[in-house]
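ok so for the tutorial part 2 we go from a plain amino acid sequence to predicted structure tokens. step 1 is just haveing the sequence, like this:
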Amino acid sequence: MNRQTLLYWARRFSLVLLLVVFIIAITFGIRTKSHVDSFAQNLKSGASLEVATQSAVALSKDIDRFFVIANFPIVKQLLARADVNFMPIKNEISTLVKVAPSLVGADRPMRYLIAFQNSAEARGTGGILGAFAVVEFDKGNLTVIKTGSNKGLRWLDEIPIAMPDEFKDLYRSDPAIWQNSNLSPHFPYGAKIWLALWKLQFGQRLDGVIAVDPIALSYMLKATGPVSLPSGKVLTAENLVSETLSKAYKEYEKDNAAREQYLVTIINATSKQLLEAKFNKLQMARAVQQGIAENRILIYSSEPNVETELRQTRLAGFMETAPSNQFRAVVQNIDASKLDYYLEREASIRSVGCGVSAKVEVSVSVKNSLKNGVGLPAYVLTRDDRNKPAKIIAGQHRFLLFIYGPPKSKLLYASRSSTTSSAGNVASERMRPLLVADLDLAPGASEKVTATFTRGVGPLEYHLQPLVLEESVQINDECK
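step 2 — the prediction. this is what the tokens look like for a chain of 480 residues:
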């Protein structure tokens, strides 16, 4: 068979394969549409939770079948050309569909606290709670009940719920303050504390917490288009982050209460745009995909069955205690500044030897990319940390860097680029050893912290902490 004949049959085969894929997709699409219609009808008609869940499970199975088809090489190519790739959040999509009846109030109205995390001041799950909303889902219909800033939220002297001893050793009573409730990167801890604080202050039991940050919202604005504020200012996907996490501090330098109200205004305007559903649905799906993949969208449900399903996905922000080889580095702002807006991070995770004596070296480089603090508002430059130096350069930023090993591993040794003395303190959280390094970086300064752990189980993984600047990560695993 000559080359021309081979090319001819290769093309014919490709056309036939495309036709088969097309037929499968159409058949799948018809069946899925039927399941979607059934699910929507059951939800809106007030069908029992059991009936609504059955239709959701059927739809979830369709989605699983879709991902099997989507993994065919030729289908992957077609989806890539269309810039549609939801494979990284396959588990999240399938799980959300499965638990949707409970989440969106199939049998009773469900109310959630939406925590807008300000990642210019880092916390374990992203940033401090800067503003909030309370929303209600009733048979799939969404209503915004209340919005506000953290200014009106009262905190306590002690954490209002029982927490593990290691949690109290690590964070003391600081999480009793709303802005510190999410110090731990284990999202259910912070969510439970927020719900308890809310109930004590407002006498209202909420059904869960949804956390998002301005970066995730900026992705959504790519789908909705610009949002116009009553003042005439227009927010876009390109300027939302800088407007909320940087420029607002300068614009409202003399009136922080006005700045907080400005954030509430942005939330109200953005919520209105989303509720009207006047957006490109494919673009919105891409926005949600990116937000989930970067751990910028988190969900906690007080319904045990729902939370059990969610914890199998990254949506739960669940720091697992089961054997794994997951490492993470977490920045904890301790000076109350908003300088994490300028913090650059690079992480390198590499295996050192294999077998029974295998180790893993984690190196984290952090840089204060701010050139200087001249002209920045005092609120941004805050140094409210204990035992701070007598002389501080404007823009100097102090924070803790937590480097976590896998569950049941051991921290063997650690070092810092700036000193030959102690690299930090050793602690533990959720069966994971961790190094706690206290860093204080002047503008332009950088630091490298390295921690070596015994190897866990499985391939090397790294969990991203969602801050403003994207973290650069390199994984070199020679023991795959």
